[in-house]
Design a protein that fits this description.
Elements (H helix, E strand, L loop, with lengths): L10 H10 L2 H6 L2 E6 L2 E7 L13 H17 L7 E11 L7 E10 L4 E12 L2 E15 L8
Antiparallel strand pairs: 1-2, 2-4, 3-6, 4-5, 5-6
Amino acid sequence: MTTFEPGCAHHVRRVHDSFSRQGVMHTLGARLGAVTPGAVDITLDWGPGLTQQHGFLHAGVVATVLDSACGYAGFTLMSEDSAVLTIEFKINLLSPAKGERFRMEGRVIKPGRTITVCEGRAYALAGSSEKLIATMGCTLMAVSGRDGIQG
């Protein structure tokens, strides 16, 4: 695994502060897990309000949380005056999202001053078993000096 240097000394606090402002993560019941330079995990419990017609976690929920995990992974490496926005992602749904809880991992593949490329993986957890259910390729942009866009 590649080791990255954080974009600022208080990168963990920045991620936590930004995550707390995300209404959608609060609505979904998502929780911030591990935060290290270039890597962020977000966890989520299964709930009936998050499912599609077969009772699986909805693909839109999987994509939303994976997008945030990738975005925050990139954000850990961005300068203190930067905010992060996703500019593109592709998701591969590998298996139905069936589990008691889920872990979404965002990992930086290639950081850049303006553009950062990340990879995401979503796992369904049930008891002691873990199953890969989705992968994501995600491209992020560091944004600074724009009104209304903050870390």
